[in-house]
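Weekly sync, protein design subgroup
Attendees: M.S., D.O., the rotation student, P.L. (late)

Item 1: inverse folding check
M.S. brought a backbone from last month's batch and wanted to see whether the design step gives back something sensible before we order anything. D.O. pointed out we never logged the input encoding, so this time it goes straight into the notes. Structure tokens as presented (388 positions):
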């Protein structure tokens, strides 16, 4: 057979099959969000994943978040769901670990979840973001790190303010309203603590104040005596704390044991029951908190939410449950308005949703941030109340 002879029929069929497979492969690698998840089909349940730490030191966050999300979903399901379809949520434990989070991102995609609520830990959300973007899964997170905005994903949305908002509001109150000049800082080296450190440092320096000491601890540290002894030596008027609930509580408890009487100030974690319980009611007294959700009694909407939360779970609602409730409500509203769209169409519908929630008015910009305001509260008798 000469070199110019025509290929045999089997070889022709093989070449055709390879070409078809290659075309299919290219189609599968289209723009993020092009694929249609099974949860977005015309029938069956609408599947939404709730991802948060359900074990370990951050498990209280995961518990609050899941309860807030579930309450919103239960209310919608009682009214018939969306277009007659039931909304189905499932909780996934990321253990507060970015690697576990990335594995869960692949899992929820393979199981046809069309959207995700969570996580409360910014580092985990940031790790998951590229996979969720590629798979076209919109994510409404409770994280607050400015690093979430830096990801620049059109599929990532925040259900609360960023650290810049929390800490600029707090710094303004401490420096301008209270007149504090001697401010000490203690933060941890995790994603939350680092974000808080950078945002608060910039905010107070913009107001002409340089912290008298800046102590950084680790996320798994239990003994803070060395850092607190250095803070005590500076005799600060107030101490900014950038750490999650349990660690922050331990820091405050140990500070009081060392004779430090200055008030502490911080963001969302210091407004939670876990912080107060860990620190002790007496030690936590007077802690100043920047938060978009100070009390269950600030409006008829928060009172209704708090009553429903109490009836469902037998405990008082707080910020993280309210954030997840708002975020889930925004997602469900977008799903209804879009006819249960998926991928980029759903992300666009979330961005277009204007929602008056428990935390305030949500109006999303291109950066995925929908709310940019907090208020100042203070811990009194173990409860966060509005600063008068």
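Designed sequence read out in the meeting:
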């Amino acid at each position: 057979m000469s070199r110019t002879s025509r290929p045999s029929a089997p070889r022709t069929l093989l070449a055709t099959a390879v070409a078809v497979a290659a075309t299919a492969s290219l189609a599968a690698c289209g723009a993020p969000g092009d694929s249609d998840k099974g949860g977005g089909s015309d029938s069956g349940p609408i599947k939404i994943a709730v991802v948060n730490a359900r074990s370990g030191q951050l498990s209280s966050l995961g518990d609050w978040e899941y309860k807030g999300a579930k309450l919103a979903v239960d209310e919608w399901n009682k009214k018939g769901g969306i277009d007659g379809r039931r909304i189905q949520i499932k909780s996934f434990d990321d253990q507060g670990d970015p690697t576990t989070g990335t594995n869960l991102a692949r899992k929820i995609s393979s199981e046809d979840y069309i959207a995700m609520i969570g996580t409360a830990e910014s580092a985990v959300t940031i790790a998951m973001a590229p996979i969720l973007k590629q798979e076209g899964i919109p994510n409404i997170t409770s994280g607050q790190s400015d690093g979430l905005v830096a990801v620049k994903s059109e599929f990532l949305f925040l259900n609360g303010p960023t650290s810049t908002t929390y800490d600029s509001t707090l710094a303004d109150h401490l420096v301008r309203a209270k007149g504090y000049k001697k401010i000490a800082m203690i933060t941890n080296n995790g994603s939350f603590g680092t974000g808080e450190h950078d945002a608060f440092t910039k905010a107070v320096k913009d107001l002409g104040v340089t912290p008298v000491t800046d102590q950084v601890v680790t996320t798994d540290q239990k003994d803070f005596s060395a850092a607190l002894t250095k803070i005590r030596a500076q005799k600060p008027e107030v101490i900014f704390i950038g750490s999650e609930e349990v660690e922050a509580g331990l820091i405050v408890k140990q500070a009081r044991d060392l004779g430090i009487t200055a008030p502490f100030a911080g963001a969302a974690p210091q407004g939670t029951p876990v912080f107060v319980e860990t620190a002790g009611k007496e030690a936590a007294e007077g802690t100043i908190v920047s938060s978009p959700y100070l009390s269950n009694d600030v409006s008829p909407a928060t009172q209704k939410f708090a009553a429903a939360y109490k009836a469902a779970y037998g405990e008082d609602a707080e910020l993280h449950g309210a954030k997840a409730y708002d975020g889930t409500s925004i997602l469900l509203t977008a799903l209804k308005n879009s006819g249960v769209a998926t991928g980029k169409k759903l992300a666009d519908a979330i961005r277009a949703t204007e929602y008056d929630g428990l935390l305030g008015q949500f109006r999303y910009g291109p950066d995925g941030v929908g709310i940019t305001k907090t208020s100042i509260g203070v811990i009194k008798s173990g409860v966060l109340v509005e600063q008068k």
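Discussion: The chain has a mean pLDDT of 91. The chain is about 45% helix and 15% strand.
Action: P.L. to compare against the previous round before Friday.
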